UniProtKB/TrEMBL annotation:
Residue ranges occupied by any Type II secretion system protein GspF domain in the UniProt entry: 102-227
Localization, UniProt: Cell membrane
InterPro entries per the UniProt record, alphabetical: T2SS_GspF_dom (IPR018076), T2SS_GspF_sf (IPR042094)
Organism, as annotated: Nesterenkonia sandarakina
Membrane-spanning intervals of the chain: 44-61, 67-85, 208-229, 241-261
Annotated keywords: Cell membrane, Membrane, Transmembrane, Transmembrane helix
Main location, first listed in the record: membrane
Pfam families, per the entry: T2SSF
GO CC, one annotated term: plasma membrane
Membrane topology (UniProt): Multi-pass membrane protein
Protein name: Tight adherence protein B
Length: 269
């Protein structure tokens, strides 16, 4: 039986892979790698499809077609949100670790090591995701890619403006010379001060972000509680055209409100 299940899963995965190659997919290998998801795109899509089927069946058992469609749609949406959250988390960790990485690079340069050796030291000794990104930089330069291009690609993947400054500083130093260790120390000090301000801003805006989260989750939590305890309370919404329209309107307004609250509490500098 397990062998049959494995063969069936392999067949479906192969079909998904052919479909991806033929029509493409919003989830590619680079996105999964950036989110630190160790799955192939076809495997990830297959798991999402299985989740949607399970959600559809669960919705049919609990209520009806409307809930089934809703749960089936929530699974891919949730997967996309989860990927975005994982990417944002890794990018934030990279930003928080950047000043320590620069100090390590500067120390290696002052000790007489070359820039590639300093990058290799960060790849070995830094924490993830910084170590992962620097390993990628080192490997790309070893196979012939220009160091500046590899650094620029890392800055783009991590969506980090500070690392773009570092890339520019290294590029200028390679052209005109100078003490790169002192430059990196200065950039690290600036980044450290910016990170302190960023953490203070995050602390001051925590109450607003928590309020936004509660306001977004509360309607769905209440609907789920009523669905489990007394589904009859939701009958006017699930059995009438007006109810469907009101639910759609509520979801649209919640989405708009959530995006607005996110912009209010998100402070950029």
């Amino acid at each position: 039986m397990p062998g049959a299940l494995e063969r069936g899963a392999g067949t479906v995965t192969a079909l998904v892979e052919r479909l991806i190659h033929r029509r493409g997919t919003p989830v590619d290998a680079s996105t999964l790698e950036l989110a630190a998801v160790k799955l192939r795109p076809q495997d990830f899509v297959f798991l999402v499809l299985v989740g949607s089927v399970v959600g559809f069946a669960l919705g049919l058992l609990l209520s009806g077609v409307l809930l089934a469609i809703l749960l089936a749609a929530v699974v891919p949406l949730g997967a996309k949100i989860l990927l975005g959250l994982r990417i944002s988390k890794r990018q934030k960790q990279f930003a928080d670790q950047l000043d320590d990485s620069l100090q390590l690079m500067a120390s290696n340069l002052r000790a007489g090591h070359s820039l590639p050796k300093a990058l290799s030291s960060v790849a070995r000794e830094a924490e993830s995701p910084t170590s992962d990104e620097f390993v990628r930089i080192v490997n790309e330069t070893r196979v012939g890619r220009d160091l500046g291009v590899a650094l620029d690609m890392t800055a783009a993947r991590m969506a980090n403006e500070d690392f773009s400054w570092i890339t520019q500083a290294i590029a200028i130093n390679r052209e005109v010379g100078g003490n790169l260790a002192e430059v990196l120390d200065g950039v690290a000090n600036t980044i450290r001060q910016r990170n302190e301000i960023r953490r203070q801003v995050a602390t001051l805006s925590a109450e607003g972000r928590l309020s936004a989260l509660i306001l977004m989750v509360l309607p769905f939590g209440l609907a789920g509680f009523l669905l489990m305890s007394n589904p009859g309370y939701l009958a006017p919404f699930t059995e009438t055209t007006l109810g469907y329209g009101l639910m759609i309107l509520a979801v649209v307004m919640l989405t708009i409100g959530g995006l607005w609250l996110r912009k209010v509490v998100e402070i950029k500098f």
